[in-house]
Specification:
The chain has about 90 residues and is mainly beta. The protein has one helix spanning about 70-75, and strands at about 1-5, 25-30, 35-40, 50-55, 65, 80-85, 85-90.
């Protein structure tokens, strides 16, 4: 399951030291190295987005990735809140 960051995180420092920007194509993952590029695909509609890992999380059970609002909106309506996804690391 994927979710997206709330507005309260805008301009805060991420675990990688970058300033968080909800308008960029970035994401949080618990274990993938910072800078890893991944393709996140919505398993319900096959829409995909490419993001770069720059933060740690999500810390909610059963979620594997937190996307920025911009990235999440490419694969799902923001009103949905969460969606089932597959993740593929890009070389």
């Amino acid at each position: 399951m994927a979710s997206f960051y709330g507005a309260k995180f805008q301009s805060r420092t991420t675990a990688s030291g970058e300033i968080f920007n909800n308008n960029l194509m970035t994401a949080a993952h618990r274990t993938l190295p910072f800078g890893t590029q991944v393709i996140v695909t919505n398993l319900h509609n096959d829409k995909s987005v490419k993001v770069r890992i720059n933060d740690r999380g999500p810390y909610i059970k059963n979620r594997i990735i937190d996307l920025t609002k911009a990235a999440f909106s490419k694969i799902e309506n923001l009103n949905q809140g969460i969606t089932k996804v597959g993740i593929m690391v890009v070389d």
